[in-house]
Amino acid sequence: MAEGAAAIRVYGELNDFLPPEWRQRAVLYPFQGTPAVKDAIESLGVPHVEVELVLLNGESVDFAARLGDGDRLAVYPKFERLDVKGLLRVRKEPPCRLAFLLDDHLGKLARFLRLLGLEAVHANGCRDEDLVASAVREGRIVLTRDRELLKRGALTHGYWVRSTDPVEQAREVVRRFDLTSQVRPFTRCLACGGVLSPVEKEEVRERIPPRVAAWRDEYLLCRRCGKLYWEGTHHPRLRATVERILGGTAINGTG
Description:
- Helices cover 21% and strands 20% of the residues.
- By secondary structure, the chain is of the alpha/beta class.
- It has two domains: 74 residues, Beta-grasp domain (Ubiquitin-like (UB roll), Roll); 162 residues, no CATH class.
- The strands form three sheets. A five-stranded mixed sheet has the order 2-1-5-3-4, covered by helices on one side. Strands 7-6-8-9 form a four-stranded parallel sheet, with helices on both faces.
- The protein starts with a strand and ends in a 9-residue tail after the last helix.
């Protein structure tokens, strides 16, 4: 089997996946035969779902393209300010609705995303293969701290959460997917992620603590799990968390 080598350079935030000595430079990738671009990229530690554009010897290609000896491969993440629609990108466009599926290690992040009014399912205790199948079937973007999970071939959209702090994680996701305009705080159930809707006080009076019923007339009900919400003493703390995540950005929704 013929041997060869290609020079691979990754750009931007994709360098997060590389050892320090490989960052911001071309890495020599030796191989046998004609490996696929996807295999070469992931051998460096970069999950394919984090890649937006691949140039092979200056031309845009997909993940199935094959490497030859002496090739030059440039690998780019999502472009924030550059329009590359005229180029062939290696992954599908994001789902029409931005909905997330989080692995079992990101429970606090799931709660914070729901607090912002974003659609987030927490796959607690779910096997990796089942999580990927659900994400593909439901058109969800997988959020995880597990790089290997993002390398599963069936997965089309995912993101490796860099931070380990839940507030910073939420800030990171909002920034990465440009979600500020979609934030609607206090519109989803923190327990299951269902949409909250107003409910008449008399309809749920038996569920309201007497001390709350005496002064509060407005209530929200999760139509999925039935959890009842009202603006209590904890609300300022939750509002402060929203503001910490958004960093002072103007927000929409109820308050």
